[in-house]
Design a protein that fits this description.
Helices cover 60% and strands 7% of the residues. It is built from 6 helices and 3 strands; from the N terminus they run ααααααβββ. It has helices at 7-16, 31-58, 64-91, 103-106, 117-142, 147-171, and strands at residues 172-174, 181-187, 190-193. The chain has a 3-stranded antiparallel beta sheet with strand order 1-2-3. Strand 1 (172-174) and strand 2 (181-187) form a beta hairpin. 23% of the residues are buried.
Length: 201
């Protein structure tokens, strides 16, 4: 059997479903599930933008310029992700939900903060690690059934992994020889040697 579909059959099936817009009858994933995944990702990206913005304006320390630069870059990346996911949802016949009501319930992220700069960064790192896991699952969900959405999330996942790596770099000093963390950022301008902290993992 040829991998090239009969053009007349394809044209007939597509004409029958013209009211479905860009979603062809060959789209095999359940649209309700797809919409739920994309709406959850949209809500998560909105939360990430807001969390990074709040942490940006809360940052005050001798490292302020460096850290604010990273946080601003991250929220701009998240805004780009948000636009891409919303556009994909629209392409698939859905309506992106930007309502603040129920945002955390729809999303995969939570809006948490802290009282010190180190706490803010740890919350950002936890959030990024959660999103990395969930976006990996989303990539598997789309698989070969929707390669466009899968590739979009693969691109986004790379950004999220970069974010997690950059935040970890801000939180920990790595020994270039051993590759192990030797200091941890504990307060607004204080690093603590890990070998001096018996409770450190």
């Amino acid at each position: 059997m040829s991998i090239i579909s009969d053009i007349n059959e394809v044209a007939a099936r597509v004409r029958e479903s013209m009211q479905d817009g860009p979603v062809t009858p060959y789209y095999s994933l359940p649209l309700d599930a797809v919409y739920g995944v994309l709406q959850g990702a949209i809500a998560s990206e909105i939360i990430c933008v807001l969390r990074y913005q709040q942490h940006y304006y809360m940052t005050t320390s001798m490292f302020q310029d460096q850290i604010q630069g990273v946080l601003k870059e991250h929220w701009e990346d998240e805004q780009g992700h948000l636009a891409r996911i919303a556009e994909r949802l629209k392409q698939l016949g859905g309506v992106p939900n930007f309502s603040p009501a129920g945002l955390e319930a729809r999303g995969f992220s939570s809006f948490k903060s802290g009282h010190s700069l180190a706490e803010l960064l740890r919350e950002d790192l936890v959030a990024e690690r959660i999103v990395v896991k969930l976006y990996s699952d989303i990539i598997a969900f789309f698989g070969t059934a929707d390669p466009v959405s899968r590739r979009m999330f693969e691109d986004i996942l790379k950004d999220e992994e970069d974010h997690a790596d950059e935040i970890a770099d801000l939180l920990y000093t790595i020994d270039p020889v051993s590759g192990k963390a030797v200091e941890r950022f504990e307060a607004d301008s204080v690093f603590v040697r890990l070998d001096a902290d018996p409770g450190a993992a």
